[in-house]
Every structure is written in C-alpha cells, then in structure tokens.
Amino acid sequence: MQPTTPRIAIIGAGPGGLTCARVLQRHGIPVTVFDRDASADARPRGGTLDMQPDSGQLALRETGLDEGFRALARPEGQEMRLLDHTGALLLQRTPAAGEEPSPEIDRGELRRLLLDSLAPGTMRWGHYLRTLHPIGDGTHEAEFDDGHIETFDLVIGADGAWSRVRPLLSDATPHYSGVTFVEAGFGDVDTRHPAVARLVGDGTMMALFGNKGLIAQRNSRGRILVYAAFRGSQDWAAERGLSLDDTEAVRTALLDMFTGWDAHLLALLRDNDGGFVNRPLFALPVPHAWPHTPGLTLLGDAAHLMTPFSGMGANLAMLDGSDLARALAGHADLEAAVRAYEATMLPRSAKAAEGAARGLDNALAHDAPRGTLHHLRRRLRRH
C-alpha cells in the first residue's frame, strides 16, 4: 500500500531536477535531491541560457522565483548576430516591439537561485547513484557509492546525458552527433579585448561556413564564452597527437582548422584566455520513449538529450520538472501523476529534438550559413 506521503528522490541537481524539487516543496511534498558533485561549486556550470516565455519562464513562475530571476537576468542578451567566415554581418536580431522577452541568465546564477530556494537538508552532495533495485509495488532501493541504501516510492532521473536511472526504463544510449565544440573564454573582455566585445555584441554571435562555426556568447561580469564547432571525430585532438592540456598546441591546431577566416573572427581563437575544453555533442534517438514503469521516470537530458541548436535544452528540463511536480501535487495516485506527466512530456520533447537535429544540420553544413539564415529570417517574419 502506497504511503500517504510518497518518498521521492531526484537524482541530479541540474535546472530540471532543482525546479522539480522547488515546485514539489511549494506544494508541501517532501523530496531529496542527490548529486554526484561534492558541492554546488565543485565545477564550472557552463554558459548562459535564454529563458523562453512558454517554457523556462513558465516553469520559473511555478517556482515563485520570478523576482530573483529578473534581478539576475540580462534582457540585452537576446541579441543574435549571424556572420559568414569573411566577417560579413548577414542578420542581426533583436526583440521586436511587443515580442515576449527571453532574457539571458548565466547557468551558475540560475542554479544558485534554485538551490537557495530549497528547504534545508534537501540536497545530498557527493552521492553517486551506483544501482537501483526494484523491490515491488513500484518501490526501489537506491544504493549510493558510499554504500548506504535508501528506499523510495518514486525515483526521478534528472541526471543528464549518462543517466544512471535511464537504463531501467530504456535501452537507448546517447550517440555522437558528429560535431564537436571546443570551448574557451575571455574574462574582462570589454576592457582587455574591446574589439572582441564589439564583434560579439550583447548576446550571441555565430559565424558559420563549410561545416564549421565560431560561436561566441556574452555572459555576465564581462565574460564571453567561445566555441569552435566542427564536424569530425570526437577524439580529433588525440588523433593529431595533441594533449588538450597543451593550450598553445590546441590553439595552433584550431587556427589551422579555420585558415582563411576573417582575422577579427580568428581573434576568438587567437586571443582568448586559453584552457580549451573539448565538448563533443551527443544526442538520444528521436523520438525517445519508454513504457511506463512504476516508481521511475525521467526529465531533462536524461529523457531527451539533444544538441544545443534547439535553444530549448534547459528550458525543456525546467518545464519537465515543473510539470512533473504539479502532476504529483494534483493527483492522489502516484502512478496516475507520472503517466499524465509522461503523456505530455514525451511528444513535446520529440518535437524539440527533431528541431535540434535540423538546427545542427543547417548550422554545420557544407553550404552554411544558408540554412541558418533561412531559419532565422522565418522566425523574424513570424514576429
């Protein structure tokens, strides 16, 4: 017999898992969040996110953190610039009058906003899920790497691309998309690199050509993140005999890869602060679904990992978390709540993942930036 107050575990403290936890707690439902990181600040949280009105912002309203979000967000970050490899500006998009805003917020700041909203004792840092064992009636024993075991009525896999929960629901595994990003960054860019600051502007700049791209994204506090994007092996550096720790060798290799591009664009590779990070892009099959399984479900990248060209990854994860929490609050029966959530989330995520795949194909194409330009112009006409 299901207890009156279900024992709920969320595995993973990304935007989706934390949103779910916050909304559950607002409805008086206790939850515990487990994350493998030793602390909230154990590693960098990546770049900036645009919070979409019909997904991320909708989820944030359910958290009750709108005011805190607005204090941290950057409305000017919605600007988008598309260039070709010569540096020619093909399109510059800023929000039209009357268009719903999608302000930017740094991933780290969003995470801290959500973490600080949770009840004391919600987070369990340094907990890597080793195994999950079904023990009947939808309950599962979760064993963590320190050896301790807890029992839950619902385990929510919010643990990203390489989810430990997903294998109990699906045989699907992420596949390499054929595209790799190599990340670098500039600090104090307005003072130290004003030409780069002018090139990138207040939001995102993409320069695309011939299966390659340079993407730069404004973050808060004068920081810009840069991504060199290209098709090829995810092990491209090792295959060239390079160590990713050898900053200058990697820099030289990337500059060689982008030979012939405009010098102002090459400054993104030549003059950054160094410390290159290899980020091969992975995705789950589209559509990705699973038979309903009592006591388990997924959200965010664990459910629908896609490449970043949808612009929807974190937004969808947060909407998943909000929808799941509201379903659990609105149904007396745990399984009915999860079924209702999955019936909404699965088709929605399939549509977004299809869009992400098209976006990647357009951006990293032999005739780029043609496809991306066409897509952005269509979006402008709709507004």
From TrEMBL:
GO terms for molecular function: monooxygenase activity. Its main location: cytoplasm. Residues 8-209, 296-352 form the FAD-binding domain. It is an enzyme of class 1 (oxidoreductase). Gene3D superfamilies: FAD/NAD(P)-binding domain (3.50.50.60). It catalyses: a tetracycline + NADPH + O2 + H(+) = an 11a-hydroxytetracycline + NADP(+) + H2O. The keyword Nucleotide-binding applies. InterPro entries: FAD-bd (IPR002938), FAD/NAD-bd_sf (IPR036188), TetX_monooxygenase (IPR043683). SUPFAM superfamilies: FAD/NAD(P)-binding domain. Monomer. This is Flavin-dependent monooxygenase. It comes from Streptomyces halobius.
